[in-house]
Design brief:
Organism: Pyrococcus furiosus (strain ATCC 43587 / DSM 3638 / JCM 8422 / Vc1)
Number of domains: 2
Number of helices: 10
Pathway: Pyrimidine metabolism; UMP biosynthesis via de novo pathway; (S)-dihydroorotate from bicarbonate: step 2/3
Structural class: alpha/beta
Subunit structure: Heterooligomer of catalytic and regulatory chains.
Largest sheet: 5 strands, parallel
Strand order of the largest sheet: 7-6-5-8-9
CATH architecture of the largest domain: 3-Layer(aba) Sandwich
Helix content: 25-40%
Radius of gyration: 19 Å
CATH class of the largest domain: Alpha Beta
GO molecular function: amino acid binding; aspartate carbamoyltransferase activity
Number of strands: 9
Catalytic activity: carbamoyl phosphate + L-aspartate = N-carbamoyl-L-aspartate + phosphate + H(+)
CATH superfamily of the largest domain: Aspartate/ornithine carbamoyltransferase
């Protein structure tokens, strides 16, 4: 696979070999970064970040990744500061921005927006989240985090907890985990179950999938608990949100029933689904997970720019 010029829109576009290339490249770049402090692979290259939706970690880690590679960054953090506010179409925005840059990272509230941007642009486009659809770079850093912690992904029992209906991070992660020999535990309120088509695809690919609303009944089985917040902004009906708000909280009492080796992950931001008392335990790796976004996004940028 020739990576130069490639778009990163959905984890579905990746083979297992593709995923392993990204993870291995990230591992190499992390080592180089620790040794040298600053790399120069992307010197003279410009990243454009187009964030039509709020972001802290994804936007800043992409910017940090590009700077660590020796490149430059332009862009906007909210649509109100762009000509979209004047009525400019997404297609015209993309065609304009690509004149100034070598790669585009886009986050947009509408599903399919990143795919549209990739169809319009002649430079690589990386999806930083499109509505409740996909978040492929988060998935890659999640896989990197799991592999880094356990030395493997195969053979693990992984629980996905919370908003499995609207959560784009868990949609992408579940699909990627189908490439590995894992057992998946899908833990959510009935109203927020994983979409049926994803569950059916997982089972067709041979993944063992358990579904439950009772966290305590499975917590002792898990190697990884991937927690997500229940996303108020994704609900079409506020009453539906109020029915499931605060469904779960991971705290010391919950973790007392877990394996000593359990690792707790979260794509962040959190609200109240993980109590702050968990932060200082050996289980919590969500801030390590945040850091891992830098080498993984460095790897993706370097690969699609053709500089590594």
């Amino acid at each position: 696979m020739d990576w130069k010029g490639r778009d990163v829109i959905s984890i579905r576009d990746f083979s297992k070999e593709d995923i392993e290339i990204v993870l291995s490249t990230a591992e190499r770049l992390e080592k180089e970064l620790k040794e040298k402090g600053q790399l120069e692979y992307a010197r003279g290259k410009i990243l454009a970040t187009l964030f039509f939706e709020p972001s802290t970690r994804t936007r800043l880690s992409f910017e940090s990744a590009m700077h660590r590679l020796g490149g430059a960054v332009i862009g906007f953090a909210e649509a109100s500061t762009s000509s979209v506010k004047k009525g400019e179409s997404l297609a015209d925005t993309i065609k304009t921005v690509e004149q100034y840059s070598d790669v585009i990272v886009i986050r947009h509230p509408k599903e399919g927006a990143a795919r549209l941007a990739a169809e319009v642009a002649e430079i690589p486009v990386i999806n930083a989240g499109d509505g409740s659809n996909q978040h492929p770079t988060q998935t890659l850093l999640d896989l990197y985090t799991i592999r880094k912690e356990f030395g493997k992904i195969d053979g693990l029992k992984i629980g996905l907890l919370g908003d499995l209906k609207y959560g784009r991070t868990v949609h992408s992660l579940a699909e990627a985990l189908a490439y590995y020999d894992v057992e998946l535990y899908l833990i959510s309120p009935e109203l927020l179950r994983m979409p049926r088509h994803i569950v059916e695809e997982l089972r067709e690919k041979g993944v063992t999938v358990y579904e439950t609303s009772d966290l305590m009944s499975v917590i002792g089985e898990l190697d990884v608990l991937y927690v997500t917040r229940i996303q108020k902004e994704r609900f079409p009906d506020e009453q539906e949100y109020l029915k499931v708000r605060g469904s779960y909280q991971v705290n010391l009492q919950v973790l007392s029933k877990a394996k000593e080796t359990l690792k707790v992950m979260h794509p962040l931001p959190r609200v109240d689904e993980i109590h702050p008392e968990v932060d200082k335990t050996k289980h919590a790796i969500y801030f390590k997970q945040v850091f891992n976004g830098i080498p993984v996004r460095m790897a993706l940028l370097g690969l699609v720019l053709g500089v590594i």
